[in-house]
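Progress report, Aim 2. The chain analyzed during this reporting quarter is listed below.
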Amino acid sequence: MILPNIVIYLVITIVTAMVYIPAVYADGAIVEIPRNAGDPSFDPQFPRPIEWYIPTNLRITVGDTVTWINNDTVTHTVTSGKGVSRYEGITGKLGVADGKFDSGLIERGERWSYKFDEPGTFTYFCTIHPWMIGSVVVEQRIPDYPHDANGNRLTLPVMTITSDRKYHVGVAWAPPVIKTGESIAFINDFFDVSGTIKQHLLKYYFVLYQNGKEIYRSLGYSERGSDVKYFVFSEPGPIIIRFEEIGGSPDNNAEFSTIVYANDDDSTIAFTSTISTAKIDTVIIHMITYAGITGLVVSAGVIYWWFRRR
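Predicted structure tokens for the chain:
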């Protein structure tokens, strides 16, 4: 029958419309502030996309410069920190700046640029219209070779002499470039000071430090001169790999370094959290928009049931 097909079509169309929330992904170093960006009002029957800044979420690499161009008819700012939802904004709630960068007033037709020298996710908003939000994800330039915390190329395994000059120890890691969320194998080798005779059942502690904090410690013993430790990093940044108390001596240590990089998948999570407030707004508007139409669908279902009875 035609009627049942119409009812099914209406249900699918409305449910799809209610759950779809547009997201903007873009590359480049230009961000446009479009015309009417500061207007929080809109017809709820035609929900507008989140376009306070275009693109809303920008992905760049360390050292890149981003330029914001004000194509609106009113003044705006680009201020790092946390904005508010549209509903919070029109009731007078303000955003909270974090002091990382601030454009000051960008008048109509003007532009402002900022160079990002550190990796991370930087959220920002307009202090005049605090519901206008955006983010810049700054990714570290990732070499395709193993290197130390200063970026110097390494040949794995990296070897060094212990502080008591009794042992020649080394470490290699796989994969050779470390990223968050991946299981990393650290292959640790222990030799006599000449570097020719492997040391069996040599006691030591394998320790990882990141951002000034100890994040992992494990007791180990060399098996025929080698041992393997595994770890998954959750945060990017430089790390120190330390062998401590080698051979049972409290002051006998060896140290290495490298960098952990953010996995590409992590930036998606960061972007999702950045626009979550705006998504909540959109969901509410969709619910209001389609509440009446949902009633029509229920009515159509009743009509369909009545026809089935006949």
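Confidence is low (pLDDT under 50) at residues 6-27, 267-294. The two ends are 13 Å apart (CA to CA). These observations will guide the mutagenesis work planned for the next reporting period.
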